[in-house]
Every structure is written in C-alpha cells, then in structure tokens.
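REQUEST FORM: STRUCTURE PREDICTION
Request ID: SP-0412
Submitted by: Lab K.M.
Chain count: 1
Length (residues): 124
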Amino acid sequence: MKKYTFILALIFSVCLGNIAMAQEGVSKGELLKALNNVDELGLSKEKSSELKNFNKGFADDVFSITDSDKSNDKKILELKNLRDKGSKDLKNILGEDSFKSFKKSVKKELKPLKRKTKLFKFIL
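STATUS: Completed
RESULT:
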C-alpha cells in the first residue's frame, strides 16, 4: 500500500511541476502590451497605428523563433538578426530621436518579461 501511495505522490508532483513550468512563459499579449505601451512618446495616430502593426508582426516573429525546436544558440542568432532588422524598420517608422525614446521605454517594460523568458533579452 505504501508503494502505491509513493507512486501516486510522485505522479502528482510531476504533473504539478509541469503545470508550474508551463505558466512561467510569456504570452504574446503580454509582449504586445509591453511593445505598444508608448503613450509617452506623443506619436501621431498614423505613426502609432503603423507602430502597432509593426509590433504585431514582430511579436509573431519572436514567438515563431522562441517556440521552435531549434537549439538555444540558433534561436539567439535568429533573435539578434530579427532585432537588427526591426531596429532599421523602427527607425524608418519613428525617426532617430523617437526610436531612442521608444527603445528606452520598451526596455523598461520588458524587464519583468525577461525574467520569465531569458531569450527576450535579445529582442531589443
């Protein structure tokens, strides 16, 4: 009887551990909220809309990389390439000065998310 109790407890703890690990990740909505929190930049509605559209595609690209079965080294390389491409596109959308303010603001917003998903430190 003790043997069955031990096995049942072991299975239960493994299941709970998997549930807890699954909850540690960051959702696409959380990432978009952090990327789109740019009210302090004072952008026009047109630029704000263009930025939000860019961020939606950027978040999709980030999650396609982080959710892939590739090694962490390949994921990091792809995220760095995406960061470089995204920086160029953002400079075209926002301009140099607004881009610097945007980057500073987003880094602050991403700080708690980086703790949950270590690969996010390579996206900005």
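NOTES: The two ends are 55 Å apart (CA to CA).
Reviewed by: T.R.
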